[in-house]
Each structure stands twice: as structure tokens, then as C-alpha cells.
Automatic annotation (TrEMBL):
Keywords: Calcium, Disulfide bond, Glycoprotein, Heme, Hydrogen peroxide, Iron, Metal-binding, Oxidoreductase, Peroxidase, Pyrrolidone carboxylic acid, Secreted, Signal. It is an enzyme of class 1 (oxidoreductase). Substrate binds at residue 201. Binds 1 heme b (iron(II)-protoporphyrin IX) group per subunit. It comes from Triticum aestivum. The record marks 97 as: Transition state stabilizer. The keyword Transmembrane does not apply. This is Peroxidase. Residues 60-349 form the Plant heme peroxidase family profile domain. Residues 1-22 form the signal peptide. Ca(2+) 1 binds at residues 102, 105, 107, 109, 111, 125. Ca(2+) 2 binds at residues 232, 271, 274, 279. It is found in: Secreted. GO terms for molecular function: heme binding; lactoperoxidase activity; metal ion binding; peroxidase activity.
Length: 354
């Protein structure tokens, strides 16, 4: 308990002090993979209890779930996503990531959207180290939810809106090449805690840590490699990769160094080649040593290189695998799901009710 408190304090101090301090601090806390590994790991990160138990796979989900319940729902979401992506493709990237970060913490229950929870906890997932000042696309979810409530109230969960929005963003950003069959029928959770976001793998994670974090959610190593391909769109802050310029392709590193210009909060494109297209370019970038994070670069290691090469080479193969892996990610369940259909996506229906 004392260790947890100390860990929370150091994370807070590092966070408040900004990226430069984070780079220098070198203390791994519970956020394994989000801060650079440290010699103090054994002191601060005792992980005696072994890997978490895999979440059970989703049940009760079905395709076309809203066809009879709320026939306009999926179109409302698709239109909202299309409008947002047309204005700024980066929001589409944000929506895909929102889905991943929702499903990995408490299952796909829209806990990532909450500001106000049943226990009146304000330190929600949105405040967690991987999410704060980083997640985007919330306004698209809210816009879709408002329109859906007007069409058929109390019927469509925020968790399903997040899942469908990720599906639609994948479709638009891939220019129609990626068609995810996403079932519906999720329910919204009533709790959300910042510290639980430490279940998300971090940019400094090694292969074993990446595999373990995905396995803990019932996903295979191949699915981990497949889903990492989402780093072919969107942006990332320099604080997560500026310590490894020397390990990158020299010309690429020089370009990034100039873009970052010593500021850890600067954002750069994740894929320098086709930055706004959800395609298999990421895997060529891994092979060319032109990826940002250590967690991207380590996929070019003996354990996973065969999959990376295959994804880079075979037309259409990665796209089909990505469709399946996203659908499977959408079935991750937490312990306390099926609680309600929220009226507003960022707060539970009745605070403190049960
Ligand atoms: C494999 C382990 C993963 C790690 C370590 C990781 C880590 C990260 C980090 C550090 C960022 C940049 C955040 C920032 O600078 O604020 C990022 C961005 C992003 N990640 Fe991942 N990620 C992983 C897997 C995934 C998966 C599975 C998906 C989706 C299927 C995904 C989708 C994205 C997208 C789309 C962005 C850009 C978001 C935007 O532009 O708003 N990532 N990721």
C-alpha cells in the first residue's frame, strides 16, 4: 500500500514536472512501459502476483443489434465520424485509439469516457498517464450520442458508439479497404479509475511485455502485431521516442529531431510515408527502422519478425487480420459490465445509486 502511494506520488510529480522530468526520472512505476525502464524497478514495481487472468470473451453481442431497436443509430454514428474525419483525419485516429483504450480497461464499457462515476471518483481513466492530454475524438462520440438519444432514447450504449465509431474511422481512413464486422449489444459501466490504465502497454514496452498485456485481454501475439499496425495513422508526442533517435534510421531520426526541437510535447506523424491512411505501411516502416516507439521497433525481433514481413509483403493480408482483431478486441469484457445505457456518455446515469 505504501509502495502504491509512493508510486502514485512519483507519477504525479513526474507528470506535473513535464516531459523533460519524465525523461530524466527513469523510475518505473506501476505504469510499466510508459516510463523508461529503471534500475529501481524491483523496488518500485514489485509484480509478485503474476499476470492478470484473461478477461472472458464477449457474449451477448450480435451483428445488426440495433436494426430493430434503433434503426438509424449506425447511420448517425457513421455520418458523425465521416464529418469529423473529413475535417481532420487525426480525429479518426483518435477514435480508433479510444476504442483500444476503452476495451483494455474494464472491457469495452465506455469507462474511458467517464468524468463522473458512481463512486464520484474524478480521477478517471481520462486522467491516466496513457490518456491525459492525448486521447481525442470525445466530441464525435458526444455528438452521435445526442442525435441518437433524440431518435431513440435509452437504447444505444456509449460503449457501442465507441466500437462503431472505431469501425467507421477504420473504413474511412483506409479508403474503404477495411470493413470491420462489429457486433453491438455492449452495456456501459459505472466506474472508471486512472490507475487502471496501467494495463495499457507503453511505448517503452519490450516484446514480452507487449505479448503479456495483450494475452491478459485474451489476444494473441499475432493479434498484438496486427493491431500495432494502427500506428500507421495519427500522431505521437516526442517525449515517447526522443530517447531513441540514435537507434533509428539516421535520416528519419534527423527529421524527427528537427520537428521535436527539444520539446517533448510536440506531436509528429506516426507514419512518415502515408500519414493519414490506415494501410500496411507501418510494417515496412518497422523493417526500415522508421518507427517511433521502442514498442514498435521491437516487433522487428526474432519473435515477431515473420509476421511483420508477411504483413508488409502480402497485399490484403494485414487488412483482413486487422478486421478480425478489431472485432475480437470489441468482445473484451470486464468484471462489472451490463450495468446501464448511459444518457450522456461522460457521466453515469445516477451518481451513487448502486
Ligand atoms: C502495442 C502496444 C501499443 C503501444 C505501446 C501504444 C502506444 C501509443 C502511444 C505512446 C501513442 C502516442 C500517444 C501520445 O503521444 O500522446 C499512441 C498513439 C496511437 N495509437 Fe497506440 N499503442 C499500442 C497499440 C495500439 C493499438 C492496439 C491501437 C489500435 C488498434 C493503437 C492506436 C493508436 C493510434 C491510432 C494512435 C494515434 C492517436 C492520435 O493521433 O490521436 N495503438 N500509441
Amino acid at each position: 500500500m505504501a509502495t502504491n502511494k509512493l508510486a502514485a506520488l512519483v507519477v504525479l510529480v513526474a507528470f506535473l514536472a513535464g516531459p523533460a522530468a519524465c525523461e530524466g526520472i527513469n523510475i518505473c512505476l506501476n505504469f510499466n512501459g510508459w516510463l523508461k525502464p529503471s534500475i529501481l524497478d524491483p523496488l518500485f514495481c514489485p509484480r509478485g502476483s503474476g499476470p492478470p487472468v484473461p478477461s472472458p470473451s464477449g457474449s451477448g453481442l450480435s451483428y445488426g443489434y440495433y436494426n430493430t431497436r434503433c434503426p438509424t443509430a449506425e447511420k448517425i454514428i457513421k455520418d458523425a465520424v465521416k464529418k469529423a474525419v473529413d475535417e481532420n483525419p487525426g480525429i479518426g485516429a483518435g477514435l480508433i485509439r479510444l476504442f483500444f483504450h476503452d476495451c483494455f480497461v474494464r472491457g469495452c464499457d465506455a469507462s474511458v469516457l467517464l468524468n463522473t462515476t458512481n463512486s464520484q471518483n474524478s480521477d478517471t481513466e481520462r486522467e491516466g498517464l496513457p490518456n491525459k492530454d492525448s486521447l481525442r475524438g470525445f466530441e464525435v462520440i458526444d455528438e452521435a450520442k445526442t442525435a441518437i438519444e433524440a431518435a431513440c432514447n435509452n437504447t444505444v450504449s456509449c460503449a457501442d458508439i465507441v466500437a462503431f465509431a472505431a469501425r467507421d474511422a477504420s473504413y474511412f481512413l483506409s479508403n474503404g479497404s477495411i470493413n470491420i464486422r462489429m457486433p453491438g449489444g455492449r452495456y456501459d459501466g459505472r466506474e472508471s479509475f486512472a490507475n487502471e490504465t496501467d494495463q495499457l502497454p507503453g511505448p517503452f514496452s519490450n516484446v514480452a511485455q507487449l505479448q503479456a498485456s495483450f494475452a491478459a485481454k485474451g489476444l494473441t501475439s499475432d493479434e498484438m502485431v496486427t493491431l500495432s499496425g494502427a500506428h500507421t495513422i495519427g500522431r505521437a508526442r516526442c517525449m515517447f521516442f526522443s530517447s531513441r533517435f540514435s537507434e533509428m534510421d539516421p535520416a528519419y531520426a534527423a527529421k524527427l529531431r528537427a520537428q521535436c526541437n527539444g520539446n517533448g510535447n510536440t506531436n509528429v506523424n506516426q507514419d512518415d510515408v502515408t500519414s493519414n491512411v490506415l494501410d500496411k505501411q507501418y510494417y515496412q516502416n518497422v523493417l526500415d527502422n522508421k518507427v517511433l516507439f521502442a514498442s514498435d521497433a521491437v516487433l522487428n525481433s526474432t519473435v515477431t519478425r515473420a509476421q511483420v514481413t508477411e504483413n508488409a509483403d502480402k497485399a490484403g493480408e494485414w487488412e483482413r487480420k486487422f478486421e478480425k482483431a478489431m472485432e475480437k478486441m470489441g468482445k473484451i469484457k470486464g468484471d462489472q459490465q451490463g450495468l446501464e445505457i448511459r444518457k450522456v456518455c461522460w457521466r453515469v446515469n445516477n451518481v451513487g445509486l448502486y
